[in-house]
Design a protein that fits this description.
The complex is a heterodimer. Chain A is an alpha+beta fold. Chain A has 21 helices and 21 strands. The termini of chain A are far apart. The model of chain B has no long low-confidence stretch (mean pLDDT 85). The chains are: A alpha+beta, B mainly alpha.
């Protein structure tokens, strides 16, 4: 210091200037590099650096969206999303942790089992410890404060009505996406939009600050079905009981409101519990009402009757000679249970006489019958858009053999679902017109796209005949409902096996309309392979129809037909 | 004159903006914690709501109603013989 004050020598000054210059250039270089990185070069500079920084501290998390409620037509919940917490952990932090024992006890597992599971994920950063815990369970686990264990909010689907509507409402998978039934069909409507938020995390992965919501979670919309849960429950109970009584392999029933096309109830057997995946049976998830097709058999005879009445060659009182109780078509002989002699067209349907229908079909030819089937919507999918729905098949061949022409008239050689059958009969209940089916509740006063299928007069006549089928001479006396006039038609169909029709396996059917004075409700019942002697539609399916319709009419406060005595007179009149 | 006022103004503006940053980040923190608690509340309410919904539908399930009506209260569907039809005179009754 002293020397410098005395005076700086020339070379010393030069050195000082040189060093200062070097330092200045160096710092200039550094500053310019900084400017390049921070300002000028966006791609490899500032953008890259910001990205690298964010990779280490900024995380995006999903905000779960609430899935919409599915309710019945009266607002009873059928599918509800409930908040649950999924517990996850970073296995790295648990591998040698002493907390595993405490954690396992709280979760209700043995420490060994948990340690084994953690070891499985020893090279991972993430594992679920327990998914879909109730908030209380999750709180107990999270309150332990084990490092590396965290909770994540989710929703779980719960089905309060359980097996009663299981096939109809369907299922969601563990991530809340619909995979079957209404849950799948209306997935877009029900599911919300998952939101996204960004947050800063610290070294241990804990969130320290939310940066902001990138996308707000939007809740799904709720859906009101046309189903009436009371009716659905009743139908379910009747069907399950009947399945036990008849020893049948499977069964299905569906009830429609013919005026609005709304499906009021739809049940199947076997059933499954949608709230538990233990012992899960995939076959039981099938909604047989829409996915299973079979030959409708004698339940098609009223449609053949429509063709006959429309041809103008028959009225319901025209006489047909069915003696000697059998008729030969080609190489086949079609028998009646006994010789009915000369009977009216109405009685042919009441008795479900094979000979009578065959003679009518031979007179008319198959074309008008096929045309009527088409007009009633057979062979076409309904408008409900149910996943896995089938449409059945109407025959479409170039050459028709004699036997094919007549078997069509009594419902062989074509296939249909129970829903299609019910929809076809809805024509009779709605003055000859058909309303598109729906699984959703219709609004009051909604204008309906009605399609006139047959004339109201013919619909009325067929309805009268259907009522007589449940009369004292008919095949469906077990379909009667106390206090009401109902009508319908039985069907008993041989099942098809590897070598054609099976002699000992049947499908029993009944499709009915009620009440006759003010027709509105159509119910179709299918019993697959009833055991024992009571395998026919009149014995196996008609009682189910009766029990269901009794409930339907009671729930809708339908007006009883006449007094008890008058009703008996009606029964006698029907037989004449 | 302007040469002397301008730096002073800039300095004051910078100071104000700095304080505003402090203030606004304080507000953000406050609002964020509020949002957190409201979100938590929403979650808790939803939890309650869906629990009540499920409880309600369990209590009102047709199965339970039928078993109470039949077993506990010994009720049965009315026989046809006790039905009485009441005629309304074109709405004059109301």
């Amino acid at each position: 210091m002293n020397r410098s004050r005395v005076g700086v020598s020339k070379p010393a000054l030069w050195r000082l200037v040189f060093v200062a210059f070097c330092l200045f250039v160096l710092s200039g270089l550094l500053i310019s590099r900084l400017v390049v990185l921070q300002v000028i070069d966006r791609d490899r500079g500032v953008g890259f650096l910001q990205q690298q920084g964010a990779l280490r501290s900024v995380r995006t998390a999903e905000i779960p969206a609430y899935r919409g409620l599915v309710t019945d037509r009266r607002g009873q919940p059928l599918a509800v999303s409930t908040p649950v917490v999924s517990i996850w952990a970073n296995p790295q932090q648990l591998l040698d942790s002493a907390d595993v024992v405490q954690l396992a006890t709280t979760m209700g597992q043995t420490p060994e089992a948990l340690a084994e599971r953690i070891n499985l994920y020893s090279d991972k950063q993430f594992m679920y410890l327990a998914r879909h815990q109730t908030p209380d369970q999750a709180r107990a686990i999270l309150d332990l404060g084990v490092p590396g264990v965290r909770g994540e909010r989710e929703y779980r689907r719960f089905y309060p009505a359980g097996e009663v509507v299981s096939q109809l409402v369907g299922l969601t998978n563990v991530d809340g996406e619909g995979i079957a039934g209404v849950e799948l069909a209306y997935n877009e409507w029900l599911r919300g939009q998952t939101g996204k938020k960004r947050y800063l995390k610290d070294l241990h992965g804990d969130a320290i600050r939310n940066i902001g919501v990138i996308e707000q979670a939007r809740s799904g919309k709720s859906l009101a079905l046309s189903i009436d849960l009371r009716l659905q429950y009743l139908q379910h109970r009747v069907l399950q009981r009947a399945m036990v009584e008849t020893g049948a392999a499977a069964g299905a029933a569906v009830t429609l409101d013919a005026r609005t096309g709304e499906i009021l109830a739809m049940t199947n057997h076997p059933v499954f519990n949608p709230n538990s995946r233990e012992g899960f049976d995939y076959a039981a998830t099938r909604n047989r009402v829409v996915t299973d097709v079979f030959e409708p058999g004698s339940t098609m005879k009223p449609l053949t009757l429509v063709a006959a009445l429309e041809s103008g060659e028959y009225t319901i009182e025209s006489l047909i000679d069915t003696s000697p109780g059998r008729v030969r078509v080609g190489r086949k002989v079609l028998p009646d249970p006994r010789n009915y002699g000369e009977i009216s067209v109405s009685r042919v349907i009441e008795k479900s006489s094979q000979v009578g229908v065959t003679k009518m079909a031979q007179q008319m030819g198959h074309e008008p019958i096929l045309e009527v089937f088409q007009r009633f919507g057979l062979g076409e999918p309904s408008s409900i858009g149910f996943p896995g729905e089938r449409s059945g098949v109407l025959p479409n061949r170039q050459r028709w053999s004699d036997i094919e022409k007549v078997t069509l008239a009594f419902g062989y050689g074509l296939t249909a679902t129970p829903l299609q059958l019910a929809h076809a009969y809805a024509v009779f209940a709605n003055e000859g017109s058909q309303v598109p089916l729906t699984l959703l509740k219709r609004n009051e006063g909604e204008s309906l796209p009605i399609r006139q299928v047959i004339s109201p007069e013919i619909a009325g006549q067929v309805l009268e005949v259907l009522n007589r089928v449940t009369g004292s001479e008919g095949t469906a006396q077990k379909a009667r409902v106390d206090g009401f006039r109902v009508g319908g038609k039985t069907g008993t169909v041989h099942k098809v096996g590897d070598a054609g029709y099976l002699d000992d396996k049947y499908v029993a059917l009944f499709v009915g309309v009620a009440p006759i004075e003010n027709p509105r409700f159509v119910t179709a019942v299918v019993v697959d392979q009833p055991k024992g002697d009571n395998y026919g539609g009149g014995a196996a399916a008609a009682p189910i129809y009766s029990a269901i319709t009794d409930g339907v009419l009671r729930l809708h406060n339908a007006r009883p037909a006449e007094s008890h005595e008058a009703r008996q007179l009606v029964g006698l009149g029907g037989g004449a | 004159m302007t040469l002397r006022v301008l730096p002073a103004c800039l300095l004051a503006a910078a100071l104000c903006s700095a304080l505003a940053v402090v203030y606004s980040s304080h507000v953000v923190r406050e609002l964020y914690s509020k949002q957190q608690s409201v979100e938590y509340q929403q979650w808790a309410l939803q939890e309650d709501y869906s629990r009540l919904l499920l409880e309600h539908s369990t209590l009102a399930s047709p199965h339970r109603i039928i078993s109470i009506a039949q077993d506990d209260l010994a009720m049965q569907p009315p026989q046809l013989s006790v039905h009485r039809l009441v005629q309304f005179q074109g709405g004059q009754q109301r």
